[in-house]
């Protein structure tokens, strides 16, 4: 969490989305609220690309990507 802002900016830059994606930081009581803020700004294709990049992490820590696929509006 300490490096979240820098990590976001790096990921946005690497994906070439600087002009299209603007991170917003809002204090929220839950992770799902923060995830919604960020993931509603992405397309389904971008979320798939992120999952593909971090697939090993999802598998190692037994995370499911399913909840992230509910956010894109495209």
Notable traits:
sulfotransferase activity, globular, Carbohydrate sulfotransferase, 74 residues, mainly alpha, Sulfotransferase, 4 helices
Describe this structure in words.
Helices cover 49% and strands 0% of the residues. It is globular. It has a domain at 30-74. It is mainly alpha-helical and 74 residues long.
User: Nearest-angstrom radius of gyration?
Assistant: 12 Å
Q: Shape from CA axes?
A: globular
Beta content: under 5%
- Classification by helices and strands: mainly alpha
User: What is the β-strand count?
Assistant: 0
- Helix-strand pattern: HHHH
Q: How would you state the average pLDDT, rounded?
A: 83
Protein name: Carbohydrate sulfotransferase
GO cellular component, one term: membrane
InterPro entries: Sulfotransferase (IPR005331)
Organism: Bracon brevicornis
Summarize this structure briefly.
Helix content is 49%, strand content 0%. It has 74 residues and is mostly helical. The protein has a domain at 30-74.
List the helices and strands and how they pair.
Layout (H helix, E strand, L loop, with lengths): L3 H11 L16 H9 L4 H10 L1 H6 L14
């Amino acid at each position: 969490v300490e490096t979240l802002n820098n990590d976001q900016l790096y990921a946005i830059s690497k994906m070439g989305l600087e002009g299209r994606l603007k991170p917003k930081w809002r204090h929220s009581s839950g992770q799902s609220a923060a995830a919604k803020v960020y993931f509603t700004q992405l397309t389904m294709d971008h979320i798939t690309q992120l999952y593909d990049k971090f697939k090993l992490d999802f598998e190692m820590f037994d995370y499911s990507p399913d909840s992230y696929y509910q956010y894109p509006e495209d």
